[in-house]
């Protein structure tokens, strides 16, 4: 016998109240049914099935809504993690750096031209902003071909950046150059990505107010999230452009092929102003060893009074007498 199952549901249950309505309970009371009597009716069963279906649709709508919000962050996360993994693996580091500089210079030219300046004034402003943002000397303003368009200005400034990067590569050496590029790119991406996550979290909590303006919050979230993502990428490019040519470091070679001479065998550097403890004297060491072996070894002095328990031990160990030879 496989048996059977029976489920009990009250008409006053929250499920029935919310989706079946009070009509079902009112109908049962009009029929003269008393409380506590089980009701077995196809009409009631259909009402329960409809209520369960509506509950499932309600929760499905919630999950779908959350999934659409999370899909925006998932797309952005995939893109930024792909770029970060390429940096960690050392793939096309110089190409990535040059791309950042090219886009940063293009953004700089567009910002300067957006103010309505033209001619020599525009060239002067571009050169000043280039020196301030990138950190290397810009060409003279009269040599910048602003009359030929932004693309020609970009070529001139990009050539200066390329020459500067080659100069830094020769100065650092290939190994150090790759390490510096990796550190700069990773630090900038991680820092700006954390700020972007914080901004997206605030946007997620406030975007629901768009509903009062008869706008779909999900569409507005996608639009504003895309704008924030573009802004984050622009900030990454600008930060890398500012830091790379201003970065200074010093390599300390190790002597003897082992740890640096400034570090002891334990791998820790001695703090300035502190002196290393002196080794115990031969007499003190012999007294301590003999005391440990047989309880003897105190300096013999018949005229000296016996020290109190809290006094320093005469053996010179530095401990109290009661904790050393006074046991």
Describe this structure in words.
- The protein is an all-alpha fold.
- Helix content is about 60%, strand content about 0%.
- The protein is built from 9 helices and no strands.
- Helix 7 (about 175-205) runs antiparallel to helix 8 (about 215-245).
- Mean pLDDT is about 75; it is low at about 255-275 and about 290-295.
Beta content: under 5%
Name of the top-level CATH class of the domain at 91-246: Mainly Alpha
* String of helices and strands: HHHHHHHHH
CATH architecture of the domain at 91-246: Orthogonal Bundle
Helix content: 55-70%
Distinctive features:
327 residues, 60% helix, Helical scaffold and wing domains of SecA, flat, mainly alpha, 9 helices, single chain
Strand-helix topology:
Blueprint: H1 14-20, H2 22-30, H3 42-89, H4 93-113, H5 120-134, H6 150-172, H7 174-206, H8 217-243, H9 282-294
In short:
By secondary structure, this protein is mostly helical.
């Amino acid at each position: 016998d496989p048996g059977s199952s029976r489920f009990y549901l009250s008409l006053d249950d929250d499920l029935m109240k919310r989706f079946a309505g009070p009509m079902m309970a009112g109908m049962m009371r009009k029929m003269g049914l008393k409380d506590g009597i089980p009701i077995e009716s196809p009409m009631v069963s259909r009402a329960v099935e409809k209520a369960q279906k509506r509950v499932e649709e309600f929760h499905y709508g919630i999950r779908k809504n959350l999934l659409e919000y999370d899909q925006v962050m998932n797309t952005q996360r995939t893109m930024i993690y792909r770029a970060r993994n390429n940096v960690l693996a050392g793939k096309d580091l110089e190409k990535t750096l040059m791309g950042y500089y090219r886009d940063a210079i293009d953004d700089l030219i567009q910002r300067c031209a957006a103010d309505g300046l033209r001619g020599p004034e525009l060239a002067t402003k571009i050169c000043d902003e280039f020196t301030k943002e990138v950190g290397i000397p810009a060409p003279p303003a009269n040599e910048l071909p602003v009359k030929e368009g932004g693309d020609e200005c970009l070529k001139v400034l990009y050539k200066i950046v390329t020459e500067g990067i080659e100069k830094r590569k020769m100065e650092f050496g290939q190994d150090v150059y790759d390490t510096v590029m990796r550190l700069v790119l990773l630090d900038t991406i991680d820092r700006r990505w954390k700020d972007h996550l914080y901004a997206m979290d605030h946007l997620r909590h406030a975007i629901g107010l768009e509903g009062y303006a008869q706008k779909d919050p999900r569409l507005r979230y996608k639009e504003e999230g895309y704008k924030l993502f573009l802004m984050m990428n622009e900030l990454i490019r600008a930060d890398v452009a500012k830091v790379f040519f201003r970065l200074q470091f010093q390599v300390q070679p190790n002597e003897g092929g082992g740890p640096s001479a400034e570090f002891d065998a334990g791998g820790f550097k001695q703090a300035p102003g502190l002196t290393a403890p002196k080794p115990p004297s031969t007499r003190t060491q012999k007294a301590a060893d003999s005391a440990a072996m047989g309880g003897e070894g105190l300096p013999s002095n018949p005229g000296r009074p016996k020290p109190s328990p809290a006094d320093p031990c005469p053996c010179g160990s530095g401990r109290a007498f009661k904790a050393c030879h006074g046991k």
